[in-house]
Structure prediction request, 586 residues.
Amino acid sequence: MKTFVCIKYVPDTSEAEVKLNPDGLSVDDSRFSFDINDADNYAVEESVLIKEAQGGEVTVLSIGPKKSDVMIRMAMAKGCDKATRVEDDRIATHDPLMVARVLAGGIKGQEFDLVMTGCMANDDWHMATGVALAEELGVNHASMVNKLELQDGKVKVHRELEGGLLEVVELDLPAVLTIQTGINEPRYAPIRGIRQAQKKELNVVSLDDLGIDPAEVGTDASQVVLEKLYIPEVESAAEFIEGEPEEKAEKLASILHKGGLL
Amino acid sequence: MGNVLVLAEHRQGALRDVSFEMLAVAPGVAEDMGGEAVVLLFGSGIDDLAKKITEYGLKVLVVDDPAFENFNAEKYQMALSAIIDDLKPSVLMTGHTAQGVDFMPALAVEKKLPLVSDAVGLSYEDGTLKATRTLYSGKVNALVAFKPADTYLVTFREGTVEAPEPAAAAEVEKLDSPLKEDVPYRKFVEYIEAEVGDVDITQSDVLVAIGRGLKEDKNLPPIEELAAAIKADLAGSRAATDAGWIPHDRQVGTSGKAVKPRLYIALGISGAFQHLAGMKGAKTIVAINKDPEAPIFTVADYAIVDDMFKVLPKLTEKIKELKG
Ligand SMILES: Cc1cc2nc3c(=O)[nH]c(=O)nc-3n(C[C@H](O)[C@H](O)[C@H](O)COP(=O)(O)OP(=O)(O)OC[C@H]3O[C@@H](n4cnc5c(N)ncnc54)[C@H](O)[C@@H]3O)c2cc1C
Ligand SMILES: Nc1ncnc2c1ncn2[C@@H]1O[C@H](COP(=O)(O)O)[C@@H](O)[C@H]1O
Prediction:
């Protein structure tokens, strides 16, 4: 089984205030720690599980800056074999259709059975790249996969629908699957793997190296324009309880008690 | 020209909420674009569903074909591709759901049309269609403008606007099925219903819900003590169930359960919309989170900005004392 797994390096903005850069078009992410996108971490694990079960090769593909190499090395430490990182600031990264076209350029011309992406990137929330990538490659796809079984030339997947309902569908390979979190239990990279990963092949390429015309994936090619970013007003009707932690606890207990909520 | 085509979504015999919600958005946009809003419905034996939508005053185009018995991304893409050529709608919108995200991006690539996914707002101003999206778990909004195109594609988030009131009934028009050939690549096998665990949290009176803020399962005891003191069942965010801290069937949110307890205490949960969608129906919501910007506070009644582990022991102790 030859697999490509697409991973993105994203900032963890869950615990802190987000501020915008003066251009109003990007987020000041200098204070945030970055890591592999949640769902992509599960996609990496799934690709390695498949390789361990049936052999083959896993190639990591990522569009991003040099600092994302630590994430790529980590994926290789877990068992991915090699990697391509596309670094080129001419890509209209606000448009998942452009991102998908570049990812396709990193795969086309090579043999593959499976391509896995995450179902959603935690920063931009498009949930669009994987399915667009399938169309760019001209292969089948299924999105939001939380279980998969390979059987001669086909893959049977569980797609996660709303309310916990699952849809089971079967597709012919090659195919693109967008992976949902929870499909497996991502491993920690073993020490030995971390050492080996340093020796694995990581190619850094530009659009020119991939034979992609920058005009096809840049802001002129994109049919959507990011006009502005803004911080939404947090409209909260909540009563914020103040004080030292223990005072807050006591006040909340009293409120719940008086409100007959206990 | 100027028409906004709304592809309604249904599953297992029922229309999904987002199908009605989009009817609150589409007519205004269509009017501004000089056209009208029309609903499109694919399915097999769906007269009753079509009739239900006509009650909202919009014309419904129905493709009734056994091939549409169950959702299939390839069939949807093929049919919509033909319908776009034929009807030339200015906008084609559908829900940003497990169904919508499974074909719209591919359709956009095939037809070389622009797509904005997960829109929470849509407007047409000065000749430009604009959409609002949210990023970074709701902490940042983006305003995105479409460049001129023949058809704009949009997936619209469920639960952002209220469905309109029913209006004068409109007509149903049957379309010939655009599916000319068999689609061999993807086969629907079956649905598997959501798992039911030992506790049905949709019936719980009081829920204590944990999120990624728990950090590790060894931090569970103070949570369990609070839950025991107020006779609450434990629930959690997807991050908590993915991590295995609580069983999968205790997940609250769009891909988990919708709950309506009397009291919901959210601990270390940021409040992503997928989570909020499942719990904002709770009568009283308490949120403890160390991030003052956490979107969970937008739905909370009582809020504490702090490290939950500093608050919890005293909270449980005081509650026990008050309950005597
Ligand atoms: C298709 C799809 C469906 C989804 N369905 C669901 C769903 O049904 N339900 C769901 O919940 N999610 C769902 N999600 C995931 C959702 O987008 C979020 O990723 C998830 O809800 C985040 O969970 P969280 O709030 O626990 O974690 P985070 O967003 O990481 O938030 C953790 C919070 O804990 C706080 N915190 C950390 N330490 C402490 C401390 N010591 N004390 C107090 N606070 C602390 C932080 O400030 C932060 O706000 C879905 C995603 C997708 C793509
Ligand atoms: N810059 C990138 N590099 C590699 N993969 C990406 C990139 N951006 C998006 N993806 C993949 O596409 C998935 C969905 O992203 P999105 O459509 O933006 O929500 C992610 O989980 C990744 O697997």
